[in-house]
Amino acid sequence: MSSRGIEWYDRHGPGLANTYESLDFEAAHGWLLDLLPERRGLTLDVGAGTGRDAAGLAALGYEVVAVEPSASMLREGMARHADARIRWLDDRLPALDATHRTGLAFDLILLSGVWQHVAPGDRPRAFRKLIRLLNPGGVLAISLRMGAADPERAMHQVSRSEIEALARGHGAFVERCVESEDRLGRRDVRWIQLAVRLPDDGTGALPLLRHVVLQDAKSSTYKLALLRSVARIADGAAGLVREDGADRVSVPLGVVALYWIRLFLPLLSADLPQSPTNRNLGGLGFVNEGFHRLLGCAPNDLRVGTRYGADLGAAVHAALVGASRTIALMPAHYMTLPNGRPVMEAVTGRAGRAPSSLVIDEAYLRRFGELLVPANLWRALSRFDAWIEPAIVAEWIRLMHGYAHRQGRKLSETAIAQAMHWSAPERVVAEARQRAIAVIESGQPLHCVWSGTRLSKDRLDIDHCFPWGSWPCDDLWNLLPSTRSVNQHEKRDRLPSAAVLNSARERVQDWWRAGYSLHANNPIADRFFLEARSSLPLIHASDDLIAVEDVFDAVAFQRLRLKENQQIPEWAGRTT
Question: Model-level pTM?
């Protein structure tokens, strides 16, 4: 949507609000009701305006991301429809950059009276962006406003045939087309309403992954290591990833190398062969002096947000240099499409010398370069990692058995299982507990974020906002003070519902400020924001200052991701 069109709605939005709200959701979209997803999942309302349709979908039990570029309309919608099931987002077509950064996928995407505001030259990109946000089997519902274009509102002519052609070009089809008069009684306006269905992922990402994992020629486990590294990043460090144009995402090559090292440390420590000739750390290009010095480290010692002194920092830096070079020269170069082009392009940087005090953050990790991953492949890894990673692991184990057989030895299944297990962060809440006790001892009130009960030391427990068993994360933002009864007997291993999380907003933010001294410039505050940048969506690593409110909003979007991608059961709050 153009700036001129947004400015028009900023000026006229409040006056239009009552008109828009006079028509309820079912009256406006009766043509669509029987096509709404049976599963009460996640929906996207693009150009949400005053939130009438978002509120209608929320009332039917769906969770909604409501996107609106006009500040005036956004304020109006948030004031009129303050429903915890609606997450408001300032974003616009054709790019929908912020929406894509959430990492979410939707069963229904609604564009009601929006397409005419997208310039014809921007529509192919806009449609591509929308389709990429749609789940397989999902519906893109578009209402086309037919009538004279209004230049003042930056409106353009639209047509059914254009939507049909765009749908065909993305492996989708128009399932329903309905024409109707204007429900608001405007004689010069009529509507064409289309439901576009995406029958499968429409991208070729899953067949490509199956080919690389199961069929592509492999002289070592490197290709599988690269895929698994990127899959793990998609699951736990997506906040470090940036869009690169329309079709790719940019992953810091340093974080790929970091995860690569984490994968190989236990394998090589157990003398498990990674190529037909590999034995006792020999024959692998990335195993340099720095890697050797890390053999005594636990994998969890190598993660984003960690600080190192000069000696260990130099070893980490050297190991990252070796791993990033190997990734660029080997698997990223030889993992190719049928046309010979690389599936993922590695662009090396200049890492330079190890800093005297090393902090693993995005700025440092990007010094090594970047890995450019096709957007469709990245989304597949983000959404389907629970299915993809076991296939990668199974093929990796098969290769190691084959290499060992050529070397005349037999591998221990127990050793393989232990070495192939991804070592998640240890479940450690001691620091958060100590800081909560310090707040209590200072005389400041500290409350259970879920119940509002004032906490004493003997009633204090530390809860993982997002359950450890489903998403292991000990980042400071994820550790919240709670009563023992709520944490252990009520919420347990469930996600807070949208309403529960929203009701806890002020208590969560008060805890972050008090517990981690976010008002001061100190290492614990730096760590809090660094972890949030790395693991949560919609927080720009380039931002010098991040508001606590922005971190909470990012937590709310991450809750949606976990609910949709992992189907984690929800906790609806206290029942007594």
Answer: 0.75
